[in-house]
Design brief:
The structure is a single chain. By secondary structure, this protein is an alpha+beta fold. It has one domain: 2,3-Dihydroxybiphenyl 1,2-Dioxygenase, domain 1. It is built from four helices and 16 strands. It has an eight-stranded mixed sheet. An eight-stranded mixed sheet has the order 6-7-8-5-9-12-11-10, covered by helices on one side. β14 and β15 form a beta hairpin. The model has no long low-confidence stretch (mean pLDDT about 95).
């Protein structure tokens, strides 16, 4: 594997405040004021960077947090609300067993009920749920070298061979990619990333440019942005 998922980068008006919120919810350790290191088998960090504009619209990816019981689900929800989260309506039905919340800047996440069999073998961070096509699930499986663990009815999921959360794509219908998406993948490659850029382009990615930190900016086949840098 030539690259790996090093971090999820989250654009925030107040990166340090958002880092404190997610540290409290997830129990992860701060590496600095705006980066969190997992304390479980999640193989990537959370990195918070400065945004210039408030969040608009719904993100194309969000965390699904698991529960061991209804009481455990209620504790997670209560803790998130105490830390500054809030309930969010994304069109969920009353009979659904997950609770949809937003962090202090409105980034959506779900606290799923204890009967969710799909995430039964996962830890607290059960999934990173993404809007996207079946084809983009295949792309990310090849890009990261993670096997498919679900591929039915145009829905796909991959998971690191080392465990951790599943990364899922829900299939159609899904909204178009937008520059307002607040979450993105940050990939790390060994050595000069140019060879890895060429490999990803051959798999269906598009090179967009370079940011101020020297990261190569790209989009996957669905047009969702991500960044690549040397390790």
């Amino acid at each position: 594997m030539a690259c790996d998922l090093a971090a999820l980068t989250v654009a925030a008006l107040d990166p340090q405040r958002l880092a404190r919120f997610w540290a409290g919810v997830l129990g992860w350790d701060p590496a600095d004021g705006a980066t969190l290191v997992p304390t479980d088998d999640t193989g990537f960090r959370l990195r918070f960077v400065q945004a210039q504009e408030p969040k608009t619209g719904q993100n194309r990816m969000h965390f699904d947090l698991t529960s061991t019981s209804l009481e455990d689900q209620e504790r997670t929800v209560a803790q998130a609300l105490d830390l500054g989260g809030r309930h969010v309506d994304v069109g969920q039905l009353p009979e659904e067993d997950h609770v949809v919340l937003g962090d202090p800047e409105g980034n959506e996440f779900c606290v799923v009920g204890p009967d969710n069999s799909f995430l039964a073998d996962c830890g607290f961070v059960g999934a990173l749920a993404c809007d996207g096509s079946q084809a983009v699930g295949y792309f990310w499986s090849r890009a990261l070298g993670w096997p498919l663990v679900w591929d039915q009815d145009e829905e796909t999921a991959i998971r690191s061979p080392h465990g951790g959360p599943k990364v899922t794509w829900g299939g159609p219908p899904f909204p178009p990619s937008s520059d307002t998406d607040r979450w993105r993948f940050d990939l790390a490659a060994d050595g000069d990333p140019e060879a890895e850029v060429e490999r990803l382009v051959a798999l269906g990615a598009t090179r967009v440019g370079t940011d101020g930190d020297g990261r190569v900016l790209m989009t996957d086949p669905d047009g969702t942005g991500y960044a690549l840098s040397s390790r």
